[in-house]
Amino acid sequence: MFQIAFVAHDRKKDEMVNFVTAYEHVFHGHKLYSTGTTGQRIMAQTKLDIHRFMSGPLGGDQQIGALVAQNELDLIIFLRDPLMAQPHEPDITALLRICDVQGIPVATNIATAEILVKALDRGDFAWRELAHKYKPAGEELK
C-alpha cells in the first residue's frame, strides 16, 4: 500500500477528476490524501476514500508538505496551472522543494502522472529501493 496525494489548481480540477476516475482501480487500496476541494470533487465522482486537508491557499499544500517531511507520502500528483498566477505560490514552491529534498516523485502534468500510475499499476514502483541504491555512501534515506 502506498500513500498518494492529489492536488490540483482550479483550472486543472476537471482534468484531475477525470484522471483519477480513469485510474480508480489503481488507487483503490492505497491511502489517499488531497487538498480540500480537489478531494471533495474526486470523492463525488468515485468510490475512493480520501483524507482531505484544507484548501491549498488556506494551508493544504503545507499540510501535504508536512507529510512529505515526515516521510509519510510516496507519490504526489499535483496538476499545476502554469498559466495562472497563484496567490500562495510560496507554499507551492515549498511543497515542490521538500519533495525534491526527500526524493518524493511528483507529477505536475497528466503525462508524468500517467507514467507513474502505470508503473504503480504494474507493481513497478520501487523508487524507495532505487533511492537507497544510488544514495551516496554515508547518507541515509529516511
UniProtKB/TrEMBL annotation:
EC class of the enzyme, as a word: lyase
UniProt KW keywords: Lyase
Catalytic center residues: D61
A GO molecular function held by the record: methylglyoxal synthase activity
Pfam families, per database record: MGS (PF02142)
Residue ranges the record marks as coiled coil: none
Domain (MGS-like): residue spans on this chain: 1-142
Catalytic activity: dihydroxyacetone phosphate = methylglyoxal + phosphate
InterPro entries, sorted: Methylgl_synth (IPR004363), Methylglyoxal_synth_AS (IPR018148), MGS-like_dom (IPR011607), MGS-like_dom_sf (IPR036914)
Positions that bind substrate: H9, K13, T35, G36, T37, T38, S55, G56, H88
EC numbers on record: 4.2.3.3
Family: Belongs to the methylglyoxal synthase family.
NCBIfam families on file: MGSA, PRK05234.1
Annotated function: Catalyzes the formation of methylglyoxal from dihydroxyacetone phosphate.
Listed name of the protein: Methylglyoxal synthase
